Amino acid sequence: MSPISTLLSEASALLRDRSGNFGMVTAIVLPILLGSAGVAIDISNVVVSQRQLQVASDSAALAAASALADGKVADTAAAQQLAKDFVAGQMANYLSASDVAYLKNNVTVNIVTTTTATGKNYKVNVSASYNMGLTPLMSVFGKKTVSLASNSATTSGTSDTKTALSMELVLDQSGSMGYNTSTCDTYKKNGSCKTYVIKIEALKAAAVKLFDALDKADPQHALVRTGVISYNNGITRDNNNKIIGISPMNWGTSVGRTYVSTLTANGGTDATEPMQSATTAIQKKADGSDTEAVEHTKKGNTTVDRYIVLMTDGEMTGNSSDWNSTKDKNVRDACDASKKAGIQIFTVAFMAPDKGKSLLQYCASSGSNYFEAETMEDLIDDFDSIAQTATRALTLLTN
């Protein structure tokens, strides 16, 4: 057979042979199958990762807004950093360190602060993005990463709405308030103490600290009303039985400041009628006709917290120098009536004897509302703490 005939014969046999078809089909289809498997796996990973990123940015936005409203961060720059750290911290559970660092650099936090007559609104927008690595199977299609992004603008807006407050200070000005504290007022040439600050002056300094904190929380005097009732063996009255040992409730603190600055120490100790009068002045009526509700409504305040701060340096003695169990019981009953009326009571025992401390522990609305001060510095800090606690309730977060 000639070479040409042989070549033609072998070519004909090759054309009739079907044994290699599967191999060629496999070579063509296998990449498609592998790519499809990669798509299925990566789609599942993308869905989960996208959800994780969205949750992280949602939580970061709310955390930043809450921190601003609560005053836990100094400014918007600190809140922005908080949000970025929050996103990175959340996603660190799912990403490598290098991916977390990349993500943190790609978190954008925008904060818009709107000041209103009653406070501030914080609108926080958190956007985050990173490139998620795909499975090697996807390299068949030349795809190694996919970009994931989240935006929490519609879920992270937090604003602060204000809850107003009315506070009565019931302050002891009995004779023992003229005694010395341990704080030196003037010094001798040799450096030893010549005169000491008396208790009533320490009380005035503490009241100023409280008033300052209230004014800082309500600089426009649209949320806080204060009044002062001073007492010794009762409330001082004039010939017409009109109470004169009192500074009536007013907006802000200026009237109360002036009144406290004039206090002098004299007489015995009985807080019964002062507590009763303080309760009457600020307790809420069911129909909203009480003076405090009416006055706050004029300012647009619909929610009002009511407080009494009861302070004494002694025990209930009346006009005598001895503890009177009946008067002590009367004060306790007056405190019970205040609590029943929905009023929160803070109490401060200033260098007080045990029976005075026991009474004020009973009258306080909770253990954390009771304070003991053994020095002028303690008293000032305690009054500041009371103001900080009361004004903290001015801000309620709404999501």
Task: Describe the protein's architecture and organization.
The protein is of the alpha/beta class and 399 residues long. The chain has 2 domains: 31-160, no CATH class; 163-398, Rossmann fold (3-Layer(aba) Sandwich). It has 11 helices and 13 strands. Strand 6 and strand 7 (193-198) form a beta hairpin. Helix 2 (21-70) runs antiparallel to helix 3 (76-91) and helix 7 (272-282) runs parallel beside helix 9. The chain is elongated and about 100 Å long. The termini are far apart. The relative contact order is 0.11. Mean pLDDT is 84; it is low at 154-160 and 395-399.
SSE topology:
Layout: H1 3-16, H2 21-70, H3 76-91, H4 97-105, E1 107-116, E2 119-133, E3 145-151, E4 158-162, E5 164-172, E6 180-187, E7 193-198, H5 199-217, E8 224-231, E9 246-251, H6 254-260, H7 272-282, H8 291-298, E10 304-312, H9 325-340, E11 344-350, H10 354-363, E12 370-373, H11 376-392, E13 395-398
Helix pairs in contact: 2-3, 3-4, 5-6, 5-11, 7-9
